[in-house]
């Protein structure tokens, strides 16, 4: 049919575990306006994809397609698009729609990928490193020599925050499993075993408090982190991994997140001179496309110059998305990538 292009995608057939992910064939319209149609090479797998699969993302609709980002080549472009067929690009898909062989997106969320940057590296940057960079530079502002606390420092986002913070001359205290924290060792990094009394360890490492704390767990972790901030400090909350257990929705985890959410009153924050800032890419990126384009261009340049090097945990064929979700639920060091053979 003229004006229609076939694509395959991985959709959530129903709420549940990894096995609910199913391949389906769909039709894509020819790009209009500023849209571009991208033939997808790679797509990143994120913890938010597991939350989507478990039905924990409001407004996702029925049978959504996971995936925040794609990297590939522009196949067709709308009449006002800034890109041309043949351009190799990275794109943010808006929180859904990345697990596909062809993605239709607005050019406001598309950036050219330098030739020296691999598809996998570019995929790691679009969501994971954008989240880390914007939390460090837009959701908070810690000057050179400052100290930050990063929860889950061995996860994909945590590793990105640690790497970018070091690049900015910050001292990092990171929580995680003692076995994995060893890989991040250095003069500017203090590892804290999350299995122990981590808040006491953080106090010993930063007796005056930290300038910012980054919490992707939620619940009680955030509340305890508030007590570790120095005057003028900021708690940046960017996730709720505590809502899942082994990659599945958990009543206990959801209850813990809910009970721990009432961390402080505005007056309490005022008196202590500290603040809480939420970060969610589906708002920050969606509402500020110019920030996204500028920040991703910078990150791609840093990768091309080999000043940052995202760690890739695994690259799997897109049809093995369920396996990728299981890997993420077990815990991996780095980013999991899906590759399309379209």
UniProtKB/TrEMBL annotation:
<keyword id="KW-0560">Oxidoreductase</keyword>
<feature type="domain" description="Enoyl reductase (ER)">
    <location>
        <begin position="16"/>
        <end position="338"/>
    </location>
</feature>
<dbReference type="InterPro" id="IPR013149">
    <property type="entry name" value="ADH-like_C"/>
</dbReference>
<keyword id="KW-0521">NADP</keyword>
<dbReference type="Pfam" id="PF08240">
    <property type="entry name" value="ADH_N"/>
</dbReference>
<dbReference type="InterPro" id="IPR013154">
    <property type="entry name" value="ADH-like_N"/>
</dbReference>
<dbReference type="InterPro" id="IPR011032">
    <property type="entry name" value="GroES-like_sf"/>
</dbReference>
<dbReference type="InterPro" id="IPR036291">
    <property type="entry name" value="NAD(P)-bd_dom_sf"/>
</dbReference>
<protein>
    <recommendedName>
        <fullName>Enoyl reductase (ER) domain-containing protein</fullName>
    </recommendedName>
</protein>
<dbReference type="GO" id="GO:0016651">
    <property type="term" value="F:oxidoreductase activity, acting on NAD(P)H"/>
</dbReference>
<dbReference type="InterPro" id="IPR020843">
    <property type="entry name" value="ER"/>
</dbReference>
<dbReference type="GO" id="GO:0070402">
    <property type="term" value="F:NADPH binding"/>
</dbReference>
<dbReference type="Pfam" id="PF00107">
    <property type="entry name" value="ADH_zinc_N"/>
</dbReference>
